[in-house]
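Design job #97: recover the sequence.
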């Protein structure tokens, strides 16, 4: 049994690696930080291959796929991603484009490549990591919210195609709310509600993935929020979201 995890050097990706290793999976771990990847490798008991790549590059995404395509991979977790906080006219466009390439393009490429392979052998799991941000407009984090909406909608569409084909391949989307990871430091925010631990999120996601649930939302509070926000007008949601985003801003 073997799993490929991107963004695996910290946060939810690291928690996925630990949980799947404990379940007996050999791992292929991908991230930008080579030192942290090797530290993760040393902490796990199963066979681990580390690949140090920046997936904001299309070339690197293809390089990764070509390097591992002959491996008998059972699970692909597209977890690599980050966020940027600030008004749209003030955020750095180069950082935004780097984020879009990581959050959208890398997920798109790797999903397409492995999905096609998995369909060919009629087995395999693909879990794309989005966010509860995918459900809402995101003033003050507009590009990040939009990028996660792309991941969710792409996954939902493939789920429908896959179901119509009666395929045994699984594809699903993890949409957590606030998680206690390094994300808030990178994005420059602090959460206004208590976040879940990365271990809670990863373990819940793995459980629901094997139960073949398409949309995975850890935490009762976030599941209730998802349910009720569907009944609210978009303009009201925008106002609410703006206040939530302002509360995240670090002093």
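Job complete. Output follows.
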């Amino acid at each position: 049994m073997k799993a490929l995890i991107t963004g695996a050097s910290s946060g939810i990706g690291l928690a996925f690696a630990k949980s799947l290793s404990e379940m007996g999976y050999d791992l292929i771990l991908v991230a930008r930080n080579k030192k942290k990847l090797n530290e993760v490798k040393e902490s796990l008991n199963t066979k681990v291959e580390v690949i140090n790549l920046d997936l904001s590059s299309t070339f690197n995404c293809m390089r990764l796929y070509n390097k591992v395509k002959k491996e008998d991979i059972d699970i692909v977790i597209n977890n690599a991603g980050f966020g940027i906080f600030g008004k749209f006219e003030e955020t750095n466009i180069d950082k935004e484009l780097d984020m879009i390439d990581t959050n959208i393009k890398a997920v798109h490429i790797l999903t397409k490549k492995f999905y096609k392979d998995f369909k060919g052998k009629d087995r395999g799991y693909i879990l794309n990591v989005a966010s509860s941000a995918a459900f809402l407009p995101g003033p003050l984090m507009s590009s990040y919210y939009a990028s996660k909406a792309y991941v969710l909608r792409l996954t939902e569409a493939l789920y429908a195609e896959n179901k119509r084909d009666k395929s045994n391949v699984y594809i699903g989307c993890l949409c957590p709310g606030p998680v206690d990871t390094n994300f808030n430091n990178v994005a420059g925010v602090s959460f206004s509600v208590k976040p879940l631990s990365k271990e809670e999120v990863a373990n819940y996601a793995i459980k629901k993935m094997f139960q073949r649930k398409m949309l995975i939302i850890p935490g009762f509070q976030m599941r209730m929020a998802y349910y009720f926000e569907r009944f609210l007008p978009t303009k009201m949601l925008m106002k609410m979201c703006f206040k939530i985003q302002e509360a995240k801003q670090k002093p």
